[in-house]
Design a protein that fits this description.
It is a single chain. By secondary structure, this protein is mostly helical. It has two domains: 1-32; 35-519, Orthogonal Bundle (Cytochrome p450). Helices cover 53% and strands 7% of the residues. The protein has 19 helices and ten strands. The chain has helices at residues 2-31, 48-56, 64-74, 98-107, 112-123, 134-144, 150-177, 184-200, 211-225, 234-264, 277-288, 297-311, 313-329, 332-345, 350-359, 368-380, 414-417, 441-446, 460-472; strands at residues 80-83, 92-95, 181-182, 395-398, 401-404, 409-412, 478-482, 501-502, 508-509, 514-519. It has a three-stranded mixed beta sheet. A three-stranded antiparallel beta sheet has the order 3-10-7. Strand 8 and strand 9 form a beta hairpin. The longest helix is centred in the middle third of the chain and has 31 residues, at 234-264. The N and C termini lie far apart (95 Å). This is Cytochrome P450. Keywords: Heme, Iron, Membrane, Metal-binding, Monooxygenase, Oxidoreductase, Transmembrane, Transmembrane helix. Its cofactor is heme. Heme binds at residue 457.
Amino acid sequence: MILFKEFIVALVSGLILAISSFLWKLAAHRRRFKDLPKPPHSFLFGHLALFSSVARQLPGKIPIAVAINRIQAQFNLPDLWYLDLWPLADPFLITGDLAIASQFLNDYPRHPIVLKQALQPLVGGTRGLVSPDLSEWHSSRTMIRTAFSITNVQRFVPTMARYSMQLREALLKRATIGNPFPMIGPLEKWGADLTFHFLLGKDTGVQRGGWGAEANTQVQALVAAADHPFSVNPWTLRQQKKARNLCQDYVRQMISKALKDTLQRDQPVGHDQFVSVIDSLVTKYREEYPGRTQWDADTLVQHVDTLATMFLAADVSSMVLTYIFCHVAQDRAVAAELRKEHNSVFPGNMQATLETICRNPSKIKELPYTTAVIKESMRLRPPGLSGTTAPNGHTVNYKGTEHSLDGCFLLTNLFRLQYNDDYVPSPLTFNPSRWLPHPSAELADSWRPFQRGQHSCMGENMMMPGLVTALLLTVRDVDIALAYDDGDICLPPELGGMAYMEGNFAAKPAKGLPVTVTKVAH
């Protein structure tokens, strides 16, 4: 009995100590925000209750950045403000200011939570491009940089064109059927064809039903796993993890086999030929270890993680193209101007256009209006950006006041930065002409979908010509109209209306952008 009483006293004492410690930390943390720019703040909950309230007003899978943007607009906050989500997360320091965005994105590494809770669980590893070790991360980027050079990508443009012709065929087939369908479907297959071939150096036949189609199914399942509803149910979490692991095993085994097969292949890539990412990795390995036909275990794991990360990029390409078609579908004048430019630069039918591209891939650079349409669409519906973190003691100056960056998740809100009327007149208007003949310095510098500095996305060199080629080989022959139902959720125009964004990894239009397609009469 005495021992039991002593146990109860010890237990109660421990609980009192733990609660006291928590309350002390709570008070110290909340006091930090006393005089900082922020929305209405609760001493007990910080901004957790506010964020939850705003998020509940939006559809369930809408990107976190959209909810953050909604809070800033609702409370008329400046372009540097704090969001206190402690103890669930580090406090956010959010900016839509160009100078501060440059500091956040150029000067600091990714926040560890981006790796641990977002990228690494999807990839199924912690090496290569998702390594927390900056030296390994830089080394992995350096090893694949050659593949993303402008010269090498230009050699890949004819292959992009052939895949875009397959997309055209799929859309024309849909036109003969006439029923509404989610536009994201054929565009995901197009994006996978481009990405898989660029990475592996071979046609995986995603659009034609080849083995790449199953690989794409597994990649899409991984992306979908990033947006599973939050759950504390152990059984649900276990089932989600099991399903994710099965997809990861398929993708990683496929990549591992491709790496081993490529290293054992005798034929080197020609000097003036396109070099895939996997060939680039093999070439560097052979230079370092002449005569080897087997990967060492450490290098193999690093490369598998790097390639698995890049396989997920196929989803970003399809997301961007889907929103481009969404904007073109809502503005017939834009569609007409695109066709006018395409007919002017590439006269003749589609087969003649394809042959011209194969002879002279650089000719797609002669389509400034098409490029402007892409940039304007990405301004309004950008892919997500990773948060960064600064060393202790660093500050940022905003309008004469120094703000501490200690312990903060530094987030550049692209929805605010690229909508900021300090840099973009009439920011809610879809106006490709604002980019022509040359954009203003403020507009060009605030356009950050591919980031800048140490976090710049090498995929820009590959994605932009891929998007140009897809529009060139489809828009002249197909007319697209949105096919949402009258009862579908419709958000404010700045959030996309019925085509609002869903998902956090590569947010796509709601319901996959339902459309109808008709063949353009010539």
